[in-house]
Amino acid sequence: MSYGAYPLEGFLDRLAGPGGAPGGGAACAVAGALACALAELVLEHAARNATSGKEPAVGLRAASGEARELRARLLGLADDDSAAYARFAKMHRRGAGEPALRASYAACEVPLDIARSCVAALRLLARAREHAAPALRCDAEAGALLALAGARGACGLVDANLPAVGDRSLAEVLTREAAALRGQAEALARRAAPW
C-alpha cells in the first residue's frame, strides 16, 4: 500500500516501527507534501479573493494545481525512497559489486528528487505568501518551514549515502547538487517565511 493511502496515524506507526522503512526520506517527502497542501490552501483562497492590481485568479489557480501535482509527486517519492532504501540495504548485505553501486546511487538520487520537489514547493509558497490574506500568511510560512525541513533532511540523506556510491566523480556531482539545493531552499524559505 502506498504511504499516501495510509491514514496519518498508520504512517506514523510505520515510521516509528522497526525495519528502517519508511525512514527519513519518506518523512522528508511527506513534510514536502504537507507543505504543498498548505500552498494549495493559500493559493486557492487568494484566487477566490483576487482583486484588480494583483495576480489574476487564473494564475493563482494554476499555481494551486502545480502544488497539488507536486504533493502527489512527493507522496510517490515517499514510496520510492522506502523501496530504494530496501534495495540499498539488501545489496550491501550481499556485498560490493555493480548491483550495490546502482542501489547506492538510487539511495542518493531519490532523496535528491525529494529535495528538488521541496525546492519547487518553496517557490510556490513564496508566491502564495505574496498573495495571502493576512490570516493565511502563517499557513504559507508553516508550509515553507515544512518544505525547508524536507529539503534539508533529504540533502542530509544524500550526504549520508554518498560514501557507498563508489564513484568519486559521481559523488562530487551529487554533493554539488545537494549543496545547490540546500542554498536554493534556504533563500526561498527566507522569502516565504521572512522571520
Descriptive notes:
The mean pLDDT is 89. The chain has one domain: Formiminotetrahydrofolate cyclodeaminase monomer, up-and-down helical bundle (Four Helix Bundle (Hemerythrin (Met), subunit A)). It has 195 residues and is mostly helical. It contains 6 helices and no strands.
Task: Offer a few descriptive terms.
single chain; 195 residues; mainly alpha; Four Helix Bundle (Hemerythrin (Met), subunit A); 6 helices; elongated
What is shown here, in short?
The chain is mainly α and 195 residues long.
Helix content: over 70%
Count of discrete alpha- or pi-helical segments spanning 4 or more residues: 6
CATH fold title: Four Helix Bundle (Hemerythrin (Met), subunit A)
Give start-end ranges of low-pLDDT stretches: none
Count of domains: 1
The overall average pLDDT, rounded, is: 89
How big a fraction of the residues is strand?
Answer: under 5%
What's the architecture, going by CATH?
Up-down Bundle
User: Termini, distance in Å?
Assistant: 39 Å
Order of helices and strands: HHHHHH
The first-level CATH class name: Mainly Alpha
Radius of gyration: 18 Å
Give the secondary structure arrangement, pairings included.
Layout: H1 8-16, H2 24-48, H3 57-94, H4 98-131, H5 137-161, H6 168-192
Helix pairs in contact: 2-3, 2-4, 2-5, 3-4, 4-5, 4-6, 5-6
